[in-house]
Design brief:
Layout: H1 15-24, H2 32-143, H3 146-163, H4 170-196, H5 200-212, H6 216-255, H7 272-297, H8 302-316, H9 318-330, H10 334-339, H11 343-347, H12 359-382, H13 388-399, H14 403-407, H15 409-423, H16 437-470, H17 475-504, H18 515-521, H19 523-532, H20 535-581, H21 593-596, H22 610-615, H23 619-631, H24 641-670, H25 699-726, H26 729-756, H27 763-782, H28 789-799, H29 805-812, H30 819-828
Helix pairs in contact: 2-3, 3-4, 3-5, 4-5, 4-6, 6-7, 6-8, 7-8, 7-12, 8-9, 8-13, 9-12, 12-13, 15-16, 15-17, 16-17, 16-20, 17-24, 18-19, 20-23, 20-24, 20-25, 24-25, 24-26, 25-26, 25-27, 27-28, 28-30
């Protein structure tokens, strides 16, 4: 039976578990006792063998220790001797290194002298060769071998560069320049023939000649010159057609006899907007053909030659292009078409009065610009292999004819919007006869309300025009124009409000005193005015005035929505233009100052849009624009800052007007309350026990109460209108309730002001005034308004008998009564308060 001693070395060895496992391996016929005895005997024998082996190995180890100690001592001695030998070697190396450095320095000087001698030798050879070449170059030219002549001139230039600025060779240097010009002139006619007849091999040889003498610019210039002529013929074809049509029409006019019934129709003139796409198609086809041919003929230079051809073409026809665009824009409007003028002429002031820039002008310009944009995208696709900076210059040349228009975009947009705002029907209200004031007020308010979406639509259209025409590069100028136009519109609304004050009867007189104040001074004037205006018309004026609140609410909400939309547009521009111009998007948490020191760069080939092409070359304009775009990310930013303030001022003016209208009837009824004779009337003696005052409130306070109680019915249409506009019924109800409370509080304040003006009141007057105040308090309670403490004090002090008034104040001690008001009532009732 073999024993596995592996489990005994395990840290988690369990004797019981091992014994149980060993017992399970016994033969079924063996008894457990015998098996355990055998197992014990084997373990004992195994332990004895292990002990014997340990003793034997320990003895052997003790014998090897002295030998190992001797080996260690010997190794230490060897290492000491080796260190000493190495130290000696290092000293010898240091001595050798010092002498070697001196030798190397001497060798370096010798090598420098050798190199200078070799250079001098080569220079002498070049000088000798230069003299020889100068003497034989005329023979080479006489042979007519242009490649050999180019090689000779190239060697001469190489020799001159090797010789340097030596006075003896100055004449040869001038001779070389003359010879290069001469060879260039000899190459040009052959190059013209090769380019015209598409001779690839000849063109390649001639290119090699020009490259050999350093005249690649001559190749580029001559290539452009050869191909510019047919392209200019394509451009001049428009003028040729116009002249032919003009001559044909003049001929028809001359052949037309006055007495003849025959009618000669005029030859239709082709508009520039219809001809321009054809020109672009033909030009694009021509460039595609040249691109394919140059890929074979000039494999190293086709990525430069063909884009250069387009750039030079646009430079050659640029002024004519601008003129044609200007005239094409003028043809969009009959007034400028008849004068053969355009937007530039209007902006320069060289036009009769009354001729203004119209939307059709700018729409025609954008239509032409879109045609050029399509051509630019096709060019970008055709020149997809060229360097991005060359592509940028090419696209800039394609858009160049519109640059003068884009620089004046803000001025054009401001003129168009100003003209369109002036055409909006916002004529002020006119004072009409009795019975027509409410209709005039309603019509004026309707015009104001309908003008708001019209104006916002005009502004939104202007934003679309800016993106379409400039790609957003003129966003800063657009913002300034929109702000100015909003100011113009709001100023017109303010003037209309002034005319409404006259219609509503709350306008200011010439000396600045309001009519309501005049009515306060002269009660008879109020009565006459009240009599001249029917109750129905008064309510129609009130209803019309309330509708002005809808105008203010509409202007506020729509201008806020437009400004939010404008901020979103600026945010989109910030993302797209920052990628195009700076190569990465502006971080929302990063201020614009981080970009002020960075120069605009190209963000990628796909990002070359119309705005990026403009902004890359005008870093100051780019920084100014991105400053605006970065500020627009701040939630506190106002895209139209001045207009936002004017909108708030307009709302305040509307609220003031509406309040004046709503409170005007109350003001009229209460204008003479302090001077009513009943306050100072004396009790009449009678033989019968009759009440000394009326048990009913007087007409002035009942008319005010009825007006206040009827006012909620007038505010309901307003609440419904605001609710349908904002889809927020709770807010609309709060809005109407707020106005109800405002008018009621104003009426209460006016009433208490009149009460303070009563100088003396008898007991009979006090009892009557107490009834009046109680009625007004009931009206306020019906409107869910708290009774002001001052008014409650008047009620308490006036309803108390005169002889008990002093005791009332003494017992209250200011807990429920307003003491200054109570003292005033005592003074009115001539009660002595000396306690």
């Amino acid at each position: 039976m073999m024993l596995d001693l592996g489990p005994f070395s395990n840290e988690n060895f369990d004797p019981k578990k091992w014994i149980n496992s060993a017992c399970q391996t016994r033969h079924p016929q063996d008894s457990l006792d015998n098996h355990l005895v055998d197992l014990e005997m084997k373990l004992q024998m195994m332990s004895e063998e292990i002990a014997a082996s340990l003793d034997e190995q320990s003895a052997a180890s003790l014998l090897r220790v002295p030998r190992a100690s001797r080996d260690v001592i010997r190794l230490r001695d060897d290492s000491l001797s080796l260190r000493s030998a190495i130290s000696g070697i290092l000293q010898k190396i240091e001595k050798a290194e010092g002498s070697a450095a001196e030798s190397i320095a001497a060798l370096s000087k010798v090598d420098s002298v050798k190199q200078r001698m070799e250079a001098a030798y080569e220079t002498l050879q070049d000088a000798a060769g230069l003299t020889q070449l100068s003497s034989t170059v005329e023979d080479v030219f006489a042979s007519g071998d242009l490649p050999r002549a180019a090689e000779t001139l190239g060697n001469m230039r190489h020799c001159l560069s090797a010789v340097g600025e030596v006075a003896e060779f100055a004449n040869i240097r001038k001779q070389l320049e003359v010879l290069e010009d001469r060879l260039d002139a000899m190459v040009q006619p052959r190059l013209t023939d090769a380019l015209f007849y598409r001779k690839v091999d000849v063109a390649q040889d001639l290119r090699g000649i020009l490259i050999r003498i350093g005249r690649f610019k001559s190749l580029e210039s001559h290539y452009t010159k050869v191909h510019l002529k047919p392209i200019k013929q394509l451009w001049e074809d428009f003028d040729s057609r116009q002249r032919v049509n003009k001559l044909a029409n003049e001929k028809n006019e001359m052949e037309r006899l006055p007495s003849s019934a025959e009618f000669h129709s005029s030859v239709p003139t082709l508009p520039f907007s219809s001809w321009l796409p054809r020109f672009y198609d033909e030009l694009l086809l021509y460039l595609e053909q040249e691109w394919k041919w140059c890929m074979v003929a000039f494999q190293e230079d086709y990525k430069t030659l063909v884009p250069k051809l387009l750039t030079e073409t646009m430079a050659a026809i640029g002024s004519s292009f601008v003129s044609r665009i200007n005239l094409a824009i003028g043809d969009a409007v009959p007034e400028t078409k008849a004068l053969a003028k355009g937007i530039l002429d209007i902006l320069s002031g060289d036009m009769p009065k009354g001729i203004k820039i119209q939307t059709k002008h700018l729409e025609a310009l954008i239509e032409l610009h879109n045609m050029t944009g399509t051509f630019a995208r096709n060019i970008q696709h055709l020149f997809s292999e060229i360097e991005i900076r060359v592509l940028k210059d090419t696209l800039k040349a394609a858009y160049f004819p519109y640059e003068s228009f884009k620089q004046r975009y803000g001025q054009m947009e401001r003129a168009i919007l100003s003209s369109e705002i002036a055409n909006v029907d916002l004529r002020g209200a006119v004072i009409r006869g009795v019975g027509a004031q409410g209709v005039e007020l309603s019509e004026t308010v309707r015009r104001m309300e309908e003008s708001i979406p019209q104006v916002i639509l005009l502004l939104e259209t202007a934003v679309e025009r800016c993106i379409s025409f400039t790609g957003g590069s003129e966003a800063h100028e657009l913002i300034l124009a929109l702000d100015d136009i909003m100011l113009q519109y709001i100023s017109t609304l303010q003037e209309t409000l002034k005319s409404l004050r006259a219609v509503c009867g709350v306008d200011l007189s010439s000396d600045g005193v309001s009519k309501k104040d005049i009515d306060k001074k002269d009660g008879s004037q109020s009565v006459r005015r009240a009599d001249s205006t029917s109750n129905e018309e008064e309510w129609s004026i009130v209803q019309g005035a309330l509708q002005i609140l809808t105008v203010a609410d509409s202007l506020t909400s729509r201008s806020s929505v437009f400004e939010a939309s404008l901020r979103a547009t600026l945010a989109r521009l910030s993302t797209s233009l920052s990628v195009s111009v700076f190569g990465s998007s502006l971080d929302q948490n990063q201020s614009h100052s981080d970009y002020e020191n960075g120069e605009p760069s190209l963000g990628g080939r796909a990002a070359l849009d119309v705005a990026a092409v403009r902004l890359i070359d005008v870093p100051e304009k780019a920084r100014k624009l991105f400053n605006l775009l970065n500020q627009s990310k701040d939630p506190r930013f106002h895209a139209l800052p001045i207009a936002s303030q004017r909108v708030a001022a307009f709302v305040d003016t509307v609220n003031e007007l509406v309040y004046d209208v709503l409170i005007s009837k109350v003001r009229q009824r209460l204008s003479d309350v302090s001077r009513l004779p009943i306050w100072s009337s004396v009790e009449e003696h009678s033989t019968f026990a009759l009440p000394t005052f009326s048990a009913y409130p007087q007409s002035y306070v009942t008319s005010v109460g009825e007006y206040l109680l009827t006012l909620p019915q007038q505010l309901e249409p307003l609440a419904e209108g605001v609710s349908s506009y904002d889809s927020n019924n709770d807010e609309a109800q709060f809005f109407a309730t707020e106005w109800m409370f405002k008018v009621a509080e104003g009426a209460t304040a006016l009433y208490m002001e009149q009460l303070r003006g009563i100088q003396y009141i008898t007991d009979r007057g006090a009892q009557q005034l107490s009834v009046d105040i109680e009625y007004l308090s009931n009206v306020l309670s019906a409107l869910s308004m708290p009774i002001p403490p001052v008014l409650a004090t008047y009620q308490s002090c006036l309803s108390t008998p005169r002889e008990q008034l002093k005791d009332l104040l003494k017992s209250d001690q200011g807990n429920q009564l307003d003491l200054p008001t109570a003292n005033l009532v005592c003074k009115m009732r001539q009660v002595n308060l000396d306690f």
